[in-house]
Amino acid sequence: MAADNWYRNKVWDTEIEKNFEYRLKDSIGTFNQAQYVRIQATYLLESEEKTTQLGGVNLMERLLKEFPEEEFSFIFAHEQLGDYYLSTGEFQKAEKHFRVVADYYENKKSSIGTSANVDLKIAEIFLTENKTEKLEDAYRICKNYPLTEVAFNNDKFYYAELLAQICSKMHNTEEAKEFAKAAIEIYRTKEPNYIRFKSAGFPKATVSQLRILEQIVNE
Fold this sequence. Notes:
about 0% strand
């Protein structure tokens, strides 16, 4: 058994949790402990089982409560919880966690330790909520977003697709078409971001996403 398997469990039960707690208590330093909790929580959040996911949520919440001084893990945990709640449609909870990360950006003038696109995720929440009064905010967030942060093709696709949908909802037809065309072109690109890691940064999209983009182009 690999030495690090104890904090990379993909299932969660009483016995596994007991072993995790024993090993966690035996580990040295809060930096390491926070990392172990976050990594284990990440594995559980990636499960298809709701009860296992909730185990991951509980560990992330524990990290926020017990290790607030461990900045890297603390901020990363907030973003991961935001991602989880965004995926489950719990938008208020997602926005709350994303706002913590956004404030961190502002105070530190740095996005190190995060995905660097949490502002776009807040805009995505506004779009998904489908509230007219928030679309202007979503548009403003995206247009003010520093394009220097959009380095990889998957990020470029996310940015273009998001703006295409926002502009379409706002009836900015021509601008929506421009971003939809850009998103489709980025999706179709075969040029890797890294020569050594050819699959890194490749955009992923569902059939539904691509269909919506095509519809926007043909409006």
